[in-house]
Specification:
Blueprint: H1 2-14, H2 18-28, H3 50-74, H4 109-115, H5 125-138, H6 141-147, H7 151-164, H8 168-178, H9 187-194, H10 199-204, H11 206-213, E1 216-221, H12 222-234, H13 238-247, E2 248-253, H14 260-266, H15 299-304, H16 315-324, H17 345-359, E3 372-377, E4 384-389, E5 395-400, E6 405-409, H18 421-424, H19 434-437, E7 447-450, E8 457-462, E9 468-473, E10 477-482, E11 487-493, E12 499-504, E13 510-515, E14 519-524, E15 532-535, E16 541-546, E17 552-557, E18 561-566, E19 572-577, E20 583-588, E21 594-599, E22 603-608, E23 613-619, E24 625-630, E25 636-641, E26 645-650, H20 651-655, H21 662-667, H22 676-679, E27 680-685, E28 693-696, E29 702-707
Parallel strand pairs: 1-2, 3-29
Antiparallel strand pairs: 4-5, 5-6, 6-7, 8-9, 9-10, 10-11, 12-13, 13-14, 14-15, 16-17, 17-18, 18-19, 20-21, 21-22, 22-23, 24-25, 25-26, 26-27, 28-29
Keywords: Nucleus, Repeat, Transcription, Transcription regulation, WD repeat
GO cellular component, one term: transcription factor TFIID complex
Pfam families: TFIID_NTD2 (PF04494), WD40 (PF00400)
């Protein structure tokens, strides 16, 4: 109310805190002359002396007693509330446990004001921090785990504040004293932090600037938060309270505090956890309806190939392939939500081939594991940096550090380019085998080398129709190559820095790229400019993946988060935190419901896209996971790593009977089963070849690729 404001303004003026006074006055819309009679009168009038001072202190006393009285009433008339009207003593309330105390919401005015006098004394930072540390370590077990999340963001902000205000020696001793207390997964960040010792260093360091500007998110139960708030206000520890309010976003939930395991599973990213709001938007994770066309039955070749001793009753299965696509998936996006390219005749033929192959597909499971065929790149002294395999497993491409892109044919059919224009004019366009005739036999070879990039090639991707190939490079460009002529058609320039990954949409035409500039871009092959720019990551976008329905894109980043973006409007619809290192691989399950992610921490995390929850953690790899792939029907997840192994996991078991009740979704209390060992179906070592890429053929044979390293 007005009287209180006036008293506070007078106090600010007495303490010579002009700036604060101005701000408060602007906020409260009070003019200068409203501050009452006790305000400083122009010198010359002798009124200001003892009388003025008395009036002030009297006003302040009255104000304080009013505040304490208000606090007493707020408690709800609790008999044990002791209100004291002497200035400086706050209302002490003894309340039976379990009854909500409302006192902390109106802290004693004098306590808040007195804190300004010692605002940010650099010598006290260590004392503040160790005081809070002592408080958290002595709090009850149930709150300790939650409140311990504060250590890291406070440590970073207090250190940066000291550096920023040029208290270099204090900053150094603060860092040395407390950096050992931080969780092991922040080691890399702390290494960067330790090199920032001067204000000038902070200007160039984007990661730390982001840390200062974006709010670090902590998810804490209401009880733990109240405990923290009460402690900071009793201790008048305003330096920390200011940081909490300015730089942290505390997502408070009602319910039981989370356990250490539950918190450890979710934290570790550069900006803390995701706000629960971030994962509430509706996501259409279902698959689009397949176009319908008749599949001709080739009975003669069905009989001949009786693979794996399977029964010969293939016909009902054919019908099921057709009928499955007739029902519209309730979770699917509308068919025309984003414009998708029309199917060409060649695409339809390919779909028919695909269905025939699917009929002969091996049903995988714990009892029936896939064979693995490993393509080892020998003598790859150029440095293999990327691999992709076409959907029909007929070609394999490697991107190399010497800036070349090399395409191999994996089948006996050699790679041929189209004839020259002069030769093409001689061909009879009406003949049945015109597509054969346009190919130049003289150019047939197993390997084609594509030159054009001026830096290492970090990502490659074949188009679904196998007519095009994308490659992205350290030179900041994405190139589109024709697999008919083996020449470069377009160079897409949008990223100013290295482009780490690129991928075609499952329907062709669109593709996505992600790079060091911390954004992912959506392109269409016939546009020079990107159609969408997905900005939000706080560090490099290291890997990109299209959802099977092409309406969403997942990006993994060095900020240790995975984001899901809506292609239609460019919004971020999911943020997944939990990895403790940069993310290098992503895979959607074939039904579109789940996402698997792999990172430098050697863990594969499984996510339920619809509910926005982590539903599993697969531990076993000892190094970065660079490749993840689900089998064609989604029964098995294969992971390939720098530890020279391919591991197979039981995806059906991992995703069955998930606890995705409303409570879990609301609070993020995830209970991950410790069942990695039960889900691991097999581990396959290579001699000394890190696994860079995995691919399931249409019949569920697993292809793996990597470059042999001699050390």
């Amino acid at each position: 109310d007005r009287q209180t404001l006036v008293a506070v303004l007078q106090f600010l003026r007495r303490s010579n805190l002009r700036e604060s006074e101005e701000i408060l006055r602007r906020e409260a819309r009070l003019l200068g002359d409203d501050v009452g009679a006790a305000a400083l009168s122009p010198t010359g009038t002798g009124l200001l002396g003892t009388a003025g001072g008395d009036a002030d202190s009297a006003g302040e006393n009255a104000l304080l007693s009013r505040v304490t009285a208000a606090a007493t009433i707020a408690i709800g008339g609790s008999a044990a509330a002791v209100a004291s009207s002497s200035p400086g003593v706050a209302a002490v309330a003894a309340v039976p446990p379990g009854k909500g105390v409302v006192v902390e919401d109106q802290p004693d005015v004098s306590a808040v004001l007195s804190a300004y006098n010692q605002q940010g004394d650099p010598t006290l930072y260590e004392e503040y921090y160790s005081g809070l540390k002592h408080f958290i370590e002595c709090s009850l077990d149930c709150h300790r785990a939650e409140l311990s999340q504060l250590f890291y963001p406070l440590f970073v902000h207090m250190y940066l504040e000291l550096v920023y205000n040029q208290h270099e020696s204090e900053a150094k001793s603060f860092f040395e004293r407390f950096h050992g207390d931080q969780e092991c997964y922040y080691q890399d960040d702390l290494r960067v932090l330790s090199s920032l010792t001067k204000k000038e260093h902070m200007k160039g360091n984007e990661t730390m600037l982001d840390f200062r500007t974006s709010k670090f998110v902590l998810r804490i139960s209401r009880d733990s938060y109240q405990l923290l708030k009460r402690h900071l206000q009793e201790k008048q520890n305003n330096q920390i309270w200011n940081i909490v309010q300015e730089h942290l976003y505390i997502d408070i939930f009602d319910g039981m505090p989370r356990s250490k395991q539950q918190i450890d599973a979710m934290v570790g990213s550069l900006a803390g956890e995701a706000k629960r709001e971030a994962n509430k938007a509706k996501v259409f994770f279902g698959l689009l309806k397949e176009p319908e066309f008749d599949v001709p039955l080739d009975d003669e070749d069905e009989e001949g190939e009786n693979e794996e001793g399977k029964p010969k009753k293939k016909k009902p299965k054919k019908d099921s392939v057709g009928s499955k696509s007739k029902k519209q998936d309730p979770n699917a996006p509308p068919q025309n939500r984003i414009p998708l390219p029309e199917l060409k005749d060649s695409d339809k033929l390919d779909k028919v081939m695909n269905m025939k192959e699917a009929a002969r597909r091996v049903r995988l499971g714990p009892e029936c594991l896939p064979s693995i065929c490993f393509y080892t790149f020998l003598n790859a002294y150029q440095g293999l940096t990327a691999v992709d395999i076409t959907d029909d497993s007929s070609m394999i491409v490697g991107g190399f550090a010497d800036s070349t892109v090399r395409v191999w044919s994996v089948t006996p059919k050699k790679l041929r380019s189209v004839k020259t224009a002069a030769d093409l004019s001689l061909i009879d366009k009406e003949s049945d085998d015109v597509l054969e005739r346009i190919m130049d036999e003289k150019t047939a070879s197993e390997l084609k080398i594509l030159y054009g990039h001026s830096g290492p090639v970090y990502g490659t991707s074949f188009s679904p129709d196998r007519n095009y190939l994308l490659s992205c490079s350290e030179d900041g460009t994405v190139r589109l190559w024709s697999l008919q002529t083996f020449t470069c058609l377009v160079g897409y320039k949008g990223h100013n820095y290295p482009v780490w990954d690129t991928q075609f949409s499952p329907y062709g035409y669109y593709f996505v790229s992600g790079g060091h500039d911390r954004v992912a871009r959506l392109w269409a092959t016939d546009h020079y400019q990107p159609l969408r720019i997905f900005a939000g990551h706080l560090a490099d976008v290291t890997c990109t993946r299209f959802h099977p329905n092409s309406n969403y894109i997942a990006t993994g980043s060095a900020d240790r988060t995975v984001r899901l973006w809506d292609v239609l409007n460019g919004n971020c619809v999911r943020i997944f935190t939990g990895h403790k290192g940069p993310i290098h691989s992503l895979a959607f399950s074939p039904n579109g419901r789940f996402l698997a992610t792999g990172a430098t921490d050697g863990r594969v995390l499984l996510w339920d896209i619809g509910h926005g929850l982590m539903v599993g953690e697969l531990k076993g790899h000892t190094d970065t996971i660079y490749a993840l792939r689900f089998s064609r029907d989604g029964e098995i997840l294969a992971s390939g790593s720098m530890d020279n192994t391919v591991r197979l996991w039981d995806a059906v078991k991992a995703f069955e009977d998930l606890e995705t009740d409303d409570f879990t979704t609301a609070t993020g209390h995830i209970n991950l089963p410790e069942n990695s060992q039960d889900l691991l179906l097999g581990t396959y070592m290579t001699k000394s070849t890190p696994v860079v890429h995995l691919h399931f053929t249409r019949r569920n044979l697993l292809l793996a690729a990597g470059a042999y390293s001699s050390q």
